[in-house]
Structure formats: structure tokens, C-alpha cells
Write a structure and sequence with these properties.
It holds the Pfam family MdcG. It comes from Corallococcus carmarthensis. Keywords: Nucleotidyltransferase, Transferase. GO terms for molecular function: nucleotidyltransferase activity. By secondary structure, this protein is of the alpha+beta class. The chain folds into 2 domains: 74 residues, no CATH class; 117 residues. The chain is 30% helix and 26% strand. It is built from 7 helices and 12 strands. A 6-stranded antiparallel β-sheet has the order 2-5-4-3-1-6, with helices on one face. 29% of the residues are buried.
Length: 219
């Protein structure tokens, strides 16, 4: 595998010798499902690492169309290719037509803030695999990585406005933090005293002041 180490929400394709790189052997049913998925040329999503994991290990997830969630624990050499999360522009044609206006507004918001808007969850699985995942009540899970706290504030204002305009689909997702953590944008918009942060190796509550301090000071 070339390039940076895969991180949560990235996508990876497993190479021919992937089974020799298993760190935690899965059960027979999981192994059969994972093998079949890989042989059909489909990718896996990078999941949050466990605290004891080594730097040369990855936790991967496979969500099946019937909503079963399977886990895989491998060494890095199992990975043949890495992809970033797909963007809203990339997945738009994979989404239901009724979602188009809402996604167009999200794209416009990202352009206005100079942000790349990624997608994870069911719509990303549908786009990456070519298998139907999206249901009528599915959310759109979005990913944002603002560089400044002022951009976070503008982003939350914009997302709330888009959500009010489009009730046909619920916009969900995460704001990625400079230290590798992530928070729900909907929770962040409520400005709670403490908010749950999902990190690369676990999750913990943080204060809003602590989150602001992660971003560079602005004049």
C-alpha cells in the first residue's frame, strides 16, 4: 500500500494475501462474508481503532445491505489500496432523486466555505459497492474538516438552514477536529457544556472550550 496510513472513514481494498494478515481471526460466518465481499471487488471502511492496537494494525468494518455490521482486524500489509471518503459531488448520482436539491445545497455550502464535504454511512456504501443500501428513512452522513473555529460556526449555521429547507432527508454527520477526533455536527450546534468526541482510539467527553482551543487562534 502506498501513501498515508488509512484513518477512520477511509476505504480500503484488501490484497490477495489478506487472510494471512489477520490479527484477530473472525468466526466462520464472518470470514465467509468478508471473503465473498472482497472477491466481488468491493472495499471495506476503516473503523475506530481499539486502545491496545498497534500502529501497524487496522480495524475494518463491513456493513451488509441487511444492516449487519461485521468487523475485521488486520495488519497494514493486508491493504492493497486506500481511498478517502467519497465527496457529495461523487455520490450525488447514487442518491435518490428526491435528495438532489438538499445535496446541491450542501455542495453549495461546501463551496462557499472552501470545504470538501465527504460522505459516509449508507449512501457511501451504496456508492462504493454498487449494492442498494439507502432506504426511504436513511440519513445522509456528512464529513467536514474546517480549518478554523469561525468556519465551524458558519458551517453549523449553514447546515441548520439547509436542514430547515429540505425535510425529505435528514442531514447527519461529523465535524472532524484538528487532533483527529470527530463530533456530531447536530450535537455541536446545540452548544452543550460537554460534548462526546470520537477519537482515533476511543471516545470521551470534552468541553466546548477544549474543542475551540484545538483550532488556531484568529485575529
Amino acid at each position: 500500500m502506498d501513501g498515508d496510513r488509512p484513518v477512520r472513514h477511509d476505504w480500503v481494498y484488501l490484497g490477495a494475501g489478506w487472510a494471512e494478515q489477520l490479527r484477530s481471526p473472525p468466526g466462520p460466518d464472518v470470514l465467509a462474508q468478508v471473503t465473498a465481499w472482497r472477491e466481488q471487488g468491493r472495499p471495506f471502511a476503516v473503523a475506530r481503532q481499539d486502545m491496545p492496537d498497534q500502529e501497524d494494525e487496522l480495524r475494518l468494518g463491513l456493513t451488509l445491505p441487511d444492516r449487519r455490521h461485521l468487523s475485521l482486524h488486520v495488519a497494514l500489509p493486508a491493504v492493497e489500496r486506500r481511498l478517502p471518503p467519497p465527496t457529495v459531488e461523487e455520490v450525488r448520482d447514487s442518491a435518490p432523486a428526491a435528495w438532489g436539491p438538499a445535496l446541491d445545497d450542501v455542495i453549495a455550502l461546501g463551496t462557499a466555505l472552501d470545504l470538501t464535504v465527504g460522505v459516509f454511512g449508507s449512501l457511501a456504501w451504496q456508492h462504493r459497492s454498487g449494492v442498494p443500501f439507502v432506504r426511504p428513512l436513511s440519513d445522509v452522513d456528512l464529513l467536514f474538516a474546517p480549518a478554523r473555529w469561525s468556519d465551524v460556526e458558519r458551517l453549523l449555521f449553514g447546515l441548520e438552514a439547509v436542514s430547515r429547507r429540505h425535510s425529505v432527508v435528514r442531514l447527519d454527520g461529523e465535524v472532524l477536529l484538528p487532533d483527529g477526533g470527530a463530533v456530531s455536527w447536530r450535537e455541536l450546534a446545540l452548544e452543550p457544556e460537554r460534548i462526546w468526541v470520537t477519537g482515533p482510539r476511543g471516545a470521551s467527553p470534552r468541553t466546548l472550550r477544549e474543542l475551540r482551543a484545538l483550532f488556531p487562534a484568529e485575529p
